[in-house]
């Protein structure tokens, strides 16, 4: 189920993908990967940000709210 916070993350990912990655994972390797992908091409940064959002939504459905811990 899509929540309002997920819609907001999608909008942020459309505007600036590294910000969405930072909101989801904090300061982690995924953020660095997203920054590099966005520098290399705007579209790969989008794909990675949307993949992170999808992974977060899937984990919250499976394990409940707060069930997403990025390692």
UniProtKB/TrEMBL annotation:
<comment type="similarity">
    <text>Belongs to the UPF0057 (PMP3) family.</text>
</comment>
<dbReference type="InterPro" id="IPR000612">
    <property type="entry name" value="PMP3"/>
</dbReference>
<keyword id="KW-1133">Transmembrane helix</keyword>
<dbReference type="GO" id="GO:0016020">
    <property type="term" value="C:membrane"/>
</dbReference>
<keyword id="KW-0732">Signal</keyword>
<keyword id="KW-0472">Membrane</keyword>
<feature type="transmembrane region" description="Helical">
    <location>
        <begin position="31"/>
        <end position="54"/>
    </location>
</feature>
<dbReference type="Pfam" id="PF01679">
    <property type="entry name" value="Pmp3"/>
</dbReference>
<protein>
    <recommendedName>
        <fullName>Plasma membrane proteolipid 3</fullName>
    </recommendedName>
</protein>
<keyword id="KW-0812">Transmembrane</keyword>
<feature type="signal peptide">
    <location>
        <begin position="1"/>
        <end position="21"/>
    </location>
</feature>
């Amino acid at each position: 189920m899509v929540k309002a916070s997920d819609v907001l993350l999608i909008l942020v990912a459309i505007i600036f993908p590294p910000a969405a990655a930072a909101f989801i994972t904090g300061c982690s390797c995924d953020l660095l990967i997203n920054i590099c992908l966005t520098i290399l091409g705007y579209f790969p940064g989008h794909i990675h940000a949307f993949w992170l959002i999808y992974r977060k939504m899937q984990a919250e459905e499976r394990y409940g709210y707060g069930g997403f811990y990025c390692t």
